[in-house]
Amino acid sequence: MPEEIIWIGDEPFQLLFSESEIQSRVRQMALEIEKDYAGKSPIFVGVLNGAFIFMGDLIRQIQGVDLEIDFYKLSSYGKEKASAGQVQLLKSVDTKLAGRDVIVVEDIVDSGLSVSYIREAILAHSPKSLRFCALLFKESVADLDFIIDYVGFRIPKQFVIGYGLDYKQLKRNLPAIYQLVDSHPIQTGK
Ligand SMILES: O=P(O)(O)OC[C@H]1O[C@H](OP(=O)(O)OP(=O)(O)O)[C@H](O)[C@@H]1O
Ligand code: HPA
């Protein structure tokens, strides 16, 4: 079967993870988190916009834990495929995070800039614990001095779209994830 390709303008993207592959991995991640947080009342903090679909699917697979949700809204990628190299805080959480078990939910860790920013912001609230969950992790790019506790897929550095991830604010609604084909390499990190 030929690889599934979609075109955005003159840029080809190939299928990286199908909808069923994503859903099955999200279920596994949810089970692991459910086990780790049994008997606790964690708060899941999503990073908007990208994480909204992943977080929605993830928390609906966690039925054995009493959980709350809140969101930060950051922007670092602007309209293009490369990080602006600087994070802008567009919305903070409303919940008091002091003394809480906090799980940050990201669609992707790329340069690591966003998740590092969130970590500092949340640590300033003195949570009881802080863990990170990301569906996608570009480990060849990410520059972190802490670990991402729950990772869905480790991926190469190509730009990806779908399942919450956008290109110029579009294509977040694709149910699968696609990556820019190798012949169009783009450095998306810092
Ligand atoms: O590791 P980094 O290089 O910081 O990249 C990861 C961040 O970039 C994207 O958000 P973006 O700032 O594009 O905003 P969006 O979620 O609204 O698309 C993505 O959703 C992550 O939050
Ligand atoms: O590869 C990416 N695609 C879409 N948004 C992103 N934000 C960071 N990296 C990416």
Automatic annotation (TrEMBL):
Reported cofactor(s): Mg(2+)
One GO CC term, this protein: cytosol
Protein location: Cytoplasm
Gene3D superfamilies: 3.40.50.2020
InterPro entries to which the protein is assigned, alphabetical: HGPRT (IPR050408), Hxn_phspho_trans (IPR005904), PRTase-like (IPR029057), PRTase_dom (IPR000836)
Enzyme Commission number(s): 2.4.2.8
Pathway listed: Purine metabolism; IMP biosynthesis via salvage pathway; IMP from hypoxanthine: step 1/1
Keywords: Cytoplasm, Glycosyltransferase, Magnesium, Metal-binding, Nucleotide-binding, Purine salvage, Transferase
Catalytic activity as recorded in UniProt: IMP + diphosphate = hypoxanthine + 5-phospho-alpha-D-ribose 1-diphosphate; GMP + diphosphate = guanine + 5-phospho-alpha-D-ribose 1-diphosphate
Enzyme class: transferase
GO terms classed as biological process: GMP salvage; guanine salvage; hypoxanthine metabolic process; IMP salvage; purine ribonucleoside salvage
Molecular function per GO: guanine phosphoribosyltransferase activity; hypoxanthine phosphoribosyltransferase activity; magnesium ion binding; nucleotide binding
Principal subcellular localization: cytoplasm
Superkingdom to which the source organism belongs: Bacteria
Entries under Pfam families matching the protein: Pribosyltran
Domain named Phosphoribosyltransferase: residues: 21-168
Similarity comment: family membership: Belongs to the purine/pyrimidine phosphoribosyltransferase family.
Protein name per UniProt: Hypoxanthine phosphoribosyltransferase
Species the sequence originates in: Chloroherpeton thalassium (strain ATCC 35110 / GB-78)
Lineage: Bacteria, Pseudomonadati, Chlorobiota, Chlorobiia, Chlorobiales
